[in-house]
Amino acid sequence: MTGTEEHRFTRCAAGIVGLALLVIPLVCWATGAPNPLAAPGDTSGRSLAFLAQPTANLVMAGCGLLIAAAAVLRSTAVRVAALGAFALLLDAGALAAIGYLPFMVFSAVTGNADNLAAYLSIPLLMQVAMGVAAAGLLWTLVDRPVPGGAGAHERARVRTARWTAVAVIAPLVYAATRVLMVLDVPGFAVPMDATGKAAGLGLALAAIGGAVLTWGLVRPWGERWPRWMPRVAGREVPTDLPVVAALSVSVLVMAAAKAILGLVSTTSSELSAHAWAWTPMLLWPLWSVSLALAALNYRTRRTTSPQREAAAA
Predict the structure, then answer these.
(1) What is the pTM (predicted TM-score) of this model?
(2) Which key words tag this protein in UniProt (predicted)?
């Protein structure tokens, strides 16, 4: 896809999500149904739960109107404001759904597929759609021609390595705490049954998998597909593929970080009772920013030539 086609797709996604966010609260207001993002009983519908239902409907409609406008207008200011609207509406639901996916798949394979029904939750589907649209809108802001030759290439190489290291360490620290919780290590022990421990191991595996994929930003297989992969083995990895994927995860991590910081600001008893288990999650804002910066510098490194300035000289 060309850059123009990619931007058309991302603007279309933002437009559809914006219209949905505008229509849903109107339907809720007309029918008396609860706002799906102001539903304290649903783990994916809490982002507006601090508001009364009429206010939540009004805020969601306003955000939807702003996001739809960002899909139509080419104004950078409007798109930045729309990203702010997404920041308000997104919560930890989408990232949690990804994190629990290994456990859910394992449960389904072992005959307990009922847990998969949680993935059909309307608030969760809205969170996933908003995450995709937010990442796409962010991409329209950062997808610009990258000037420079050998100097820009070398700076990007160093910065990619630096930010990738941070973006790898953060999820690995989180994974380690989940393993320690499962093993009931003193200081990390949290009351959990066998199902809870299996879910904890699944979260650790998901975090480790994310760290490995992030590591690819500085590895050869992050530029060319590994030999063991059928059909694409040895071919060049499209530059934008890991960049868009990393930006998408960065958006979801930051949304989840908002919920964690909210726990800290309210001095949650759960947080204080199991500080060593939950404190590593305070790294998530840093994880989000470092992942985004690693991806953008990876793109600069891939799209600048180390020989360009030398040839010009």
Answers:
(1) 0.84
(2) Membrane, Transmembrane, Transmembrane helix
